Amino acid sequence: MKLYMHPASTTSRPVIQFITDNNIACDMQVVDLFSGEHMREPYATLNPNRMVPMLDDDGFRLTESSAILKYLAEKTGSPAYPKDLRQRARVNEVMDWLNSNFYRDYGYGLIYPQVFPHHKRRSDEAQTATVAWGKERCQGWLRILNDHIIGPDGKYLCGEEITIADYFGYAIVQVGELIRCDFAPYPNVMRWMATMGGRPSTGKVYEAIRGFAEQVKTQPFVAV
Ligand SMILES: N[C@@H](CCC(=O)N[C@@H](CS)C(=O)NCC(=O)O)C(=O)O
User: Fold this and answer.
1) What mean pLDDT, rounded, does the chain reach?
2) Residue 47: CB within 6 Å of ligand 1?
3) Per-residue pLDDT tens for 53-76?
4) What's the pLDDT band for 139 if we cut at 50, 70, 90?
5) CATH H-level, domain 2-75: superfamily
6) Are strands 2-5 and 27-30 parallel, antiparallel or unpaired?
7) Positions of CATH 1.20.1050.10 in the chain
8) Ligand 1: which residue has its CA nearest to atom 12?
9) CA angle 161, 16, 172 (to 5 degrees)
10) Is ligand 1 within 6 A of the CB of residue 33?
11) Does ligand 1 lie within 6 Å of residue 175's CB atom?
12) Helices 85-97 and 164-174 meet at what angle, rounded to 10?
């Protein structure tokens, strides 16, 4: 198996960490997003989305980080993707919630327009409105994550055991470190982030994104 990825990619990190934690035999192939390798051949034909990650399992190519996590967990029989119908449905629910509701406003509304030049809106007015909208929406989603998905006693997103939803969710929420989000109003989120951040694999897997956060640490950002 081969994973096409980039260490600074938010959607690559949960897959890399799951592979690492579970000692899955998988070659890591860096696709250099910064030089545009994903836009050129041969990658552009391998993955017409021109994005990472992509898994190649003996010629079976799979994109979408959420789908890749499910595939790998199922293939390896990992308890992180429970077999029980309702437990699995809960994991799917949380991953869909993160991928659509949360990430749309948090990543593409609040963080990326401020951090990545190609996400910045063309006018100052559009930029300010986008970021203000993203911030307001994120505060609502973080409240739901804090109060309802994790809750005061929750260790992980779907109960007492780690699931692939945690790998996925941690990668997304952690991107807020780029704009210095303050999760203090969300203590359950903070506790869960600390649990995930304390995994032995997190330091190495999150090294590149933390290096990037260091580079932008003096830039002013609107954050939650
Ligand atoms: N929905 C996709 C999103 C993948 C994605 O956004 N990948 C980014 C890196 S985090 C990428 O390859 N971006 C390249 C570009 O936009 O040019 C997934 O979850 O895998």
Assistant:
1) 97
2) no
3) 999 999 999 999 999 999 999 999
4) very high
5) Glutaredoxin (3.40.30.10)
6) parallel
7) 85-215
8) 51
9) 70
10) yes
11) no
12) 10
* Polymer length of the chain: 224
Radius of gyration of the chain (CA): 17
In the chain, CATH 3.40.30.10 sits at 2-75
Q: How confident is the model at residue 209 (pLDDT cuts 50, 70, 90)?
A: very high
The pTM (predicted TM-score) of the whole model is: 0.97
> What pLDDT is stored for residue 21 in this prediction?
98
What's the fold here for domain 85-215?
A: Glutathione S-transferase Yfyf (Class Pi); Chain A, domain 2 (1.20.1050)
Q: What is the pLDDT of residue 210?
A: 96
pLDDT at position 45:
97
- The residue whose CB lies within 8 Å of the most ligand 1 atoms, and thus the one to mutate among 3, 12, 51, is 51
Tell me the percentage of the chain whose pLDDT exceeds 70: 100
Between the CA of 11 and the centroid of ligand 1 the distance, in Å, is: 6
Q: How far is Cα 73 from Cα 55, in angstroms, rounded to an integer?
A: 13
Find residue 10's DSSP bridge partners. none
Q: How far is the CA of 193 from the centre of ligand 1 (A)?
A: 23
**Which residue among 4, 6, 10, 11 has the greatest number of ligand 1 atoms within 8 angstroms of its CB, and so is best to mutate?**
11
**Any idea which residue has 């911030």 for tokens?**
135
| 64 CB near ligand 1 (under 6 Å) | yes
Neighbours of 180 (CB within 10 A): 14
Atom of ligand 1 nearest to the CA of 9: 10
